[in-house]
């Protein structure tokens, strides 16, 4: 197994994420030139929604156009630590703020754009292609890489132990690579092949109630199923994360168009007007 590839594909893309009093992990998945700002790069990571939930506030506000209260989300910045390495040694942890550009509580996923860190990032994770998801099998070697208990990132090896565990109507991969609190938002990576693809984000561990305490089964962890990654990308107009023909600004334009269309529908509905009405 190529040690250099393991470092570059599995360890180096992992970051530490903090939001309010909570924290966890994240995985850098995008670092491409900014077409609107020469010399700068757009850098984006994935994490779990529950990791950055403290930065999301839902408020009831009066809308003068709709003449009623509506719910709006107010998104605080989150803090991201990107690590520089010399081989296996952490040289520095560079702290920057990040802007939440998309989140989905159902899928427990979020995308965050780094604010001040606009330099090219040499190491980003490769997301498993759609057409390879069906090739996953039990006993496939995997690595969990994250900031367990908010420690600097480190990897744990294991295997896939269940391919589609359904919890709360959501699909997960189950793996026996040890994970614990703080790993949330970190990556589950393929443990073989050339790309060491990102399969999903570590998001749940098994906990058993024992009297007044709990016992954590660190070897029975659950990660976002890769099908759900693509559902999140497509629903949130983040296709640029896997489609080289798309880009960040096209995605933002589509998101804004959808928002305006939704607002228009709400206004028409409040006026008792249907979309195809000639009134």
Give the helix level as a range of percent: 10-25%
Q: What strand order characterises the main sheet?
A: 1-2-3-8-7-6
Question: Which of globular, elongated, flat, extended, rod-shaped describes the shape?
Answer: globular
Order of helices and strands: HEEEEEEEEEEEEEEHH
State which percent range the strand residues make up: over 45%
Radius of gyration: 20 Å
Please work out how many helical segments DSSP would assign: 3
- Per the CATH scheme, the topology name is Thrombin, subunit H
Query: In this structure, how is the largest beta sheet organized?
Result: 6 strands, antiparallel, barrel
What is the domain tally? 1
Average of pLDDT: 90
So what's the CATH class? Mainly Beta
Structure characterization notes:
With 279 residues, the chain is an alpha+beta fold. The protein has one domain: Thrombin, subunit H, CATH 2.40.10. The chain contains 3 helices and 14 strands. The chain has helices at residues 3-11, 226-235, 248-270, and strands at 14-19, 22-33, 41-47, 56-63, 68-75, 78-86, 89-104, 109-114, 141-146, 154-167, 170-175, 187-190, 198-210, 213-224. The chain has a 6-stranded antiparallel barrel. It has a 6-stranded antiparallel barrel with strand order 9-10-11-14-13-12. The longest helix is centred in the C-terminal third of the chain and has 23 residues, at 248-270. The chain is globular and about 60 Å long. It starts with a helix and ends in a 9-residue tail after the last helix.
What are the defining features of this structure?
3 helices, Thrombin, subunit H, 279 residues, globular, six-stranded antiparallel β-barrel
